[in-house]
Write a structure and sequence with these properties.
single chain, 6-stranded mixed sheet, Metallo-beta-lactamase, Chain A, hydrolase activity, 18% helix, Metallo-beta-lactamase domain-containing protein, metal ion binding, RibonucZ/Hydroxyglut_hydro, alpha/beta, metal-binding
């Protein structure tokens, strides 16, 4: 049985996740927002197979360069946002000078598409393109865990007033890609606390 640990990182308290296989030998990292020492210690001694990015806003990618170089692991991101990794204007870091220096890193090794499956750490990760917060936002479903990025939060949703955001598109993504999942699926968002699909279908005031 795989396990995961959440790290809330940086000024915006962005959730990064380290997901480890049942043998405690291999791991993947989702959205390393900073090169946090605690996150790095968690990874030391493990074979890091990949960095999975739900999207490329600066608060989700600030630690990508350090993690990729230290552990020699490839980066996966949706094709709509591959250029955001190399462009501080697109990823927003140059607009938040009071929060972060400009952030750039190399292009990804792999591009994600909707419906794709990834075989990592002995598990199957299902890629769901969930745009609306940003054009290339994706969610990763593995077993009964959904790493939702900034699409769906506990009784909230991702903001849509940033470049490339679209409220109607995000609502469709949630209804058509996420709310169709079993109600006991655990939602692990990009910010804040965990929730479930069932709870959000019943209680989320933004998308019913």
């Amino acid at each position: 049985m795989l396990t995961f640990q959440r790290f809330s990182l940086g000024a915006l308290q962005t959730n990064a996740y380290v997901v480890v296989n049942s043998e405690r030998t291999n791991a993947i990292v989702i959205d390393p927002g900073t090169a946090d020492s605690g996150l790095m210690r968690k990874l030391d001694g493990l074979k890091v197979e990949a960095i999975l990015l739900t999207h490329a806003h600066f608060d989700h990618i600030g630690g990508v360069d350090a993690v990729r170089k230290r552990y020699g692991c490839p980066v996966y991101i949706h094709s709509a946002e591959q250029s955001w990794l190399t462009d501080a204007g697109k990823n927003g870091s140059n607009r938040w000078a009071d929060v972060t220096p400009p952030i750039t890193t190399d292009l990804p090794e792999h591009l994600l598409t909707d419906g794709q499956t990834l075989e990592l750490i002995g598990e199957t990760f299902h890629v769901k393109h969930t745009p609306g917060h940003s054009p290339g936002s994706v969610s990763f479903l593995v077993g009964d865990l959904l790493f939702a990025g900034d699409a769906l939060f506990h009784r909230s949703i991702g903001r849509t007033d940033l470049p490339g955001g679209n409220q109607d598109q995000l609502s469709r993504s949630i209804r058509e890609k996420l709310y169709v999942l079993p109600e006991d699926v655990l939602v692990l968002p990009g910010h804040g606390q965990e929730t479930t699909i069932g709870e959000e279908k019943r209680e989320n005031p933004y998308v019913r």
